[in-house]
Specification:
Blueprint (H helix, E strand, L loop, with lengths): L1 H12 L8 H7 L4 H4 L1 H24 L1 H21 L3 H29 L5 H27 L6 H4 L1 H15 L22 H26 L6 H21 L9 H4 L2 H31 L4 H8 L1 H16 L5 H20 L7 H28 L6 H30 L5 H22 L9
Helix pairs in contact: 1-6, 1-7, 1-9, 4-5, 4-6, 4-10, 4-18, 5-6, 5-9, 6-18, 7-15, 7-17, 10-11, 10-18, 13-14, 13-17, 13-18, 13-19, 15-17, 16-17, 16-19, 17-18, 18-19
Amino acid sequence: MLAIVVGLTASVLQSGIVNLALPDIARELEASAASAIWVINAFQLGTLVMLLPLAAFGDRAGYRRVYLAGLALFTLASFAAMLADSIGMLIAARAVQGLGAAGVLSVNTALVRQIHPPALLGRGMAILSMVVATSAVAGPSVAAAILSVGDWPWLFAVNLPVGAAAFFLARSALPADRPPPADADAGSSSSSSFPVGDVLMNILMFSLVFIGAQRLGVHAAAGQEAPWLAWGLLAAGLAVGAVYLRRQARRDAPMFPVDLLRIPAFSLSMGTSICAFCAQALAYVSLPFLMLESYGRSHLDTGLLITAWPLAIVVLAPVAGRLIGRVPDGLLAGSGLGILAVGLALLATLPTQPDNADIVWRMLICGAGFGLFQTPNNHAIVTSSPRHRSGAASGMLGTARITGQTVGAVILAAIFSAWGRHDGSAESAAMLIASGFAAGAAVFSVLRVRPRRPA
């Protein structure tokens, strides 16, 4: 578990650790702001397009092998990013770093399922939930600490000892890969070779949709009409997706797990996860604007106030882990999402000049709700799939998270474009919309609860 936690922490941190250094990177490498933003996008896109292919490869070749390869690639790419002397080299290194992170993220929950006996799986999922939640919001704080004593290359240099330690620890500690059961590939037309064509279609589908959505968000944030190119990219991505999914439906163990999506509990869990992470992204991205520009808080005060959210997750995630098996996953996660919806609505109704206590107790409610949601939802995703498809379920978990965060960022850009000012009204609207997404996620979650049959 330590080997998994260290690699997971480094991978999730890198998704947000560079944001604070973008102005310095653009200035030093003589790049435009539009080019510099791809230092972030390249990592996210590299991760997104390879989550499902690597998860499928993990089901075939073993989760340990994929995890170790991902850690090694992530660490080497961090070294290349540290030495980058041009924006193009840095973007390329970040894309490769994202591919390495995909190796870690695609199989981590499958490894946890392999390590833990069923009775303790909830506690293992609780640990992962704490790590992902805290790492996702700790990026700016960690970046600020590093940049206070060094330049931006140190944001990548810190991965070298961490990645090396995680690699050697994982190599010695993780269980040996198990061959897939004979019935897992029975009747599969592609069981003898890895379907490269499916990989290419998966990459093309997610790339077109991601880039199209990002362009829409950028133009909305700038107050411009969405260009035809962005809509064209989205349409092309959906067209490729339609062909790709029809092709996947004919496979026994598809790369895009349409077989798992036929399981009601799994598909409802996906809807729950996407809506919940969309709500989280709307809140996390708008909160700094609200604190800094509307309330006049300092960067330090803003960071400390927002920290109340992940602290509540750290406290509640283990509680949720212990309740798994006693309370149905759908009901437990749905209760947490209901609490999150209330907390977000309360943040939307903050007074014009709130004191710190007004902000903190609302943040604690949001964090408590999210902490109760994430562990049972991840547990439901993993356990509703057959054991030999644990990798596919793990890959979908990461895909749902990134998809929800991307949708949330695009919606927020459109909201900021509509308001055109940061007097608190746009941020409040974003919080209300986030509350609606959390409430929708709660509905998806509760629908998973099956009534008990009479004895």
